[in-house]
Amino acid sequence: xRPFSHRLQYPGALLALGTLFILIPLISRVALDWxxxxxxxxxxxxxxxxxxxxxxxxWLLSVPVILAWCVFILGTAELVSAVGRMPELxxxxxxxxxxxxxxxxxxxxxxxxxxxxxxxxxxxxxxxVRWRQSGGARQRFSPIWLVPGIALLIGHAALQYRxxxxxxxxxxxxxxxxxxxxxxxxxxxxxxDWVSSDLPSSPADISDLTQLDLNGTPLLKQAGAARNVLIxxxxxxxxxxxxxxxxxxxxxxxxxxxxxxxEWAERGMLTPDYVLxxxxxxxxxxxxLCGDYSKLDxxxxxxxxxxxxxxxSEQCLPAQLRENGFSTHYLQGAGLRxxxxxxxxxxxxxxxxxxxxxxxxxxYLEFPWGMDDKAYFEGALGYVKQLRKGKQPWMxxxxxxxxxxxxxxxxxxxxxxxxxxxAAIAYLDDAVADFxxxxxxxxxxxxxLVMVTSDESHGIEKVRLASAWGFNLILAPxxxxxxxxxxxxxxxxxxxxxxxxxxxxxxxxDIAGRSLxxxxxxxxxxxxxxxxxxRQHDGQGTFIECDFRKVCRRYASAGFxxxxxxxxxxxxxxxxxxxxxxxxxxxxxxxxxEVSLRYQFANRTPIQLNSTAxxxxxxxxxxxxxxxxxxxxxxxxxxxxxxxxMDKHGxxxxxxxxxxxxxxxxxxxxxxxxxADRPVEVSFVFxxxxxxxxxxxxLLGQGQGSIEITDFSVIxxxxxxxxxxxxxxxxxxxLQAQ
Length: 738
Prior knowledge:
Blueprint: H1 4-7, H2 11-31, H3 37-54, H4 59-83, H5 92-95, H6 98-104, H7 113-132, H8 147-162, H9 169-172, H10 175-195, H11 207-210, E1 212-213, E2 217-218, E3 228-234, H12 243-249, H13 259-265, E4 269-275, H14 281-290, H15 302-305, H16 310-313, H17 317-323, E5 327-332, H18 341-348, E6 352-354, H19 373-387, E7 394-399, H20 411-416, H21 420-442, E8 448-454, E9 469-475, E10 490-491, H22 495-502, E11 513-514, E12 518-519, E13 526-530, E14 533-537, E15 542-546, E16 552-556, E17 566-571, H23 573-587, E18 597-600, E19 607-608, E20 627-629, E21 633-659, E22 662-663, E23 680-688, E24 692-718, H24 720-737
Parallel strand pairs: 1-11, 3-7, 3-8, 4-10, 5-6, 5-7
Antiparallel strand pairs: 2-12, 4-9, 8-9, 13-14, 14-15, 15-16, 16-17, 18-24, 19-24, 20-24, 21-22, 21-23, 21-24
C-alpha cells in the first residue's frame, strides 16, 4: 500500500477547495453572528462532502458546482439580511437573475460585499491552482472519502432529533443541506403514504378556523362613538419593534427601533400576541380586509382569485362599510398595477383606489418602489383633511412602502444607523408618529377609529417567530374604556370582524375570526405560514411547527407568539399530516368549483409610457403576477392594446413570462409596433405539463405617449387529449436529440 503522503495528490487544489467549501462558510457564519452549533456542523458536513466529491474531478463537474455553491452562500446572506428568511427552492430561480438582483439592491448594493469578494478570490485561486497542476494522472475516487461528511450529517440529524432547536433555519442549516434534507423528507413521506395508503383516515376539519366567534364579552357597552375608520398599514414591520409588545411576551429582543410609535402604543390598545398569516403584501391586505386566511402556500393569492368571485368580494370590509353608508378609499405609496391592486382593491369595495401617481407633493427621496414615508404621510394627511370636509362617514386604508427592500433613508438617518434597513425603520417611525400627531391636531382621533398594523413582517434575526409576529394598535374615541394591552391570540383574520363589531354592523355570512373589542374566556386555534414554516396553535396550550422537511414538533405555549416554548416531542404520521391538510382546505376558500381558471387584468386606464426601455418590475404595465397554472391545463392569453395618445414613431411593446421571478420560455409571438391607427391584438396558447407556480406576465412598453390595455385575459382549461399529444411530441423530440 502506498504511503498516505504519496496518495494525496494536488494538495494546492485540495486546499483551495477546503477554503471555498469549509473555511469561508465557517468564517462568514461567525462574522454574521450565525454561530449556532448546528449551523457550524452543517457547514462542516456539506463542506467535507463537496471537497471529497470534487477533488481531482473534471472541470465540467467542478466549475458549475462551485458557481452554484457561491450563489447559495451569497444568496442566503443577502436574503436573510434583507427580509429575515432563508431562501426556499423557488427563490433559487431569481438569485441568479441579474436584473432582479440589481433591482432589489438598487441604492445600497450587496449587503455582504466582503463575502462576495472572498468567494470570488477563492474561485480564482482554485482555477489558477488547477490549471498549474493539470496534466497529471487523476486519482481514482474512493467512497471512503465520503465517510467523514456522511458521519457529520448523521450526527446533525441525530442531534436535531434528540434536542431540536427553535433557532431560525439559517442558523441550523446551510442552503445545500436544507435542500438535501427537504428532498429526503419528501421521499420518506411518499414511502409512508404508499405503505399506509389502505389505512382509513378521518378528513381534516377547519370549522374552528373559519367560524365567526362573537361570544366574547364586549369591551364597549354600546356601538363605538367614531364615525370614520382609518387603517394604517406599515410595510413589513414586526410586532417586536414596539416596546409594550416586547415586554408583554418577555421578549429577549433588546433593541428599540421605533421609540415614537412605541410611545403612541402606550396611549392606545395594543395586541401583542398578533399573528401574521403569510408573507407578501397582497396576502396580508386580503386577510385583514376580507376576514379570511390568506393562502398558506405559494399558490395564486386569494386577492387575485377574488376577481373571479364577486359574491365573496361583497363580504370584504370595504364593501360592507360602503353598503352601510361609508365612502371607502385606498391610498398606497407605490404604483397600483403590480399584483393587480388597481383591480383587486376596487373589487374589495373601495370607491377610490389611488397609488403613486396621485401624489403631487415632492418626495424627499428617489425610491424605486414609490413615495418615501415622510412625503407619503404628508400627502395622506392632506387626503384625510379633504375627507373631513364631506358629510359622509369614510373608511381610509393606507399602505406605506419605504421599509421594503431596497431600504432607503435620508443621509442624516444613514449616518446615525449602521445599516440602511435600520435607518429606513427609524425614518418610518418619525413619519408615522408625525402623521398621528397631525391627526390629533385635526381632531381626527375624536371621531375616528384608527388601527395601526403591518401587512407582513420582514423578520428579525434570532427572534423566535418574528416572521409571523405582527401587532394591532387601536386608537378610539372611547379609549378610557379599553385596556392598554389586549390579552388573547388574534391575527389579521380578525381585523374585519373587529371593525364591524365596533360599529355594531351586520356580519356577512363567510367572514371568520374574533373581535378585538371582546374578551374571550377560552383560547382559539390559529395558523400561519411564514419563513417556510407552517404553524398552528390549538388554543389549548399546544403549538405545532412543521418545517421544510415536513417534520412537525409540538411545544407547550400559552399563546402563539412567545419568546420560548417547552418542547414536547415530534408530531408524526396522520396527526402531523392533518395540519397540512387543514392548511390546504383553508387555501381553497375562494374556489368556485369551476374546472377552468379565468382572469381578466385589463382595466382600460390610460398608461403613460417611458421613452426608454423599462425595468421588468417597476415598469410592468399589467398586474398578472404570481399565478398558479395547474398541471394538465392549457393556457390561452389574449392581449389587446390601443394607443390613446401616440407620436408618429409609435410604441414598442414586449411581453415576458417569469416563474418565481425568473424568465421562462413560453412561445409568445413578437408584438407588432403600436401606432395611433394600428392597435395590437395577439393571442397565444401554451401547455402546462407540470404545475406552474408564481407564474407572472411582464408587459413593457417604450415610446412617447400613452396606451390603454383593453383586454388581457388568461384562461387555463383542462385539455387532456391535447396535453397527452404535446407530451408525446416533447418526448419524441428529446429521443431524437439523444
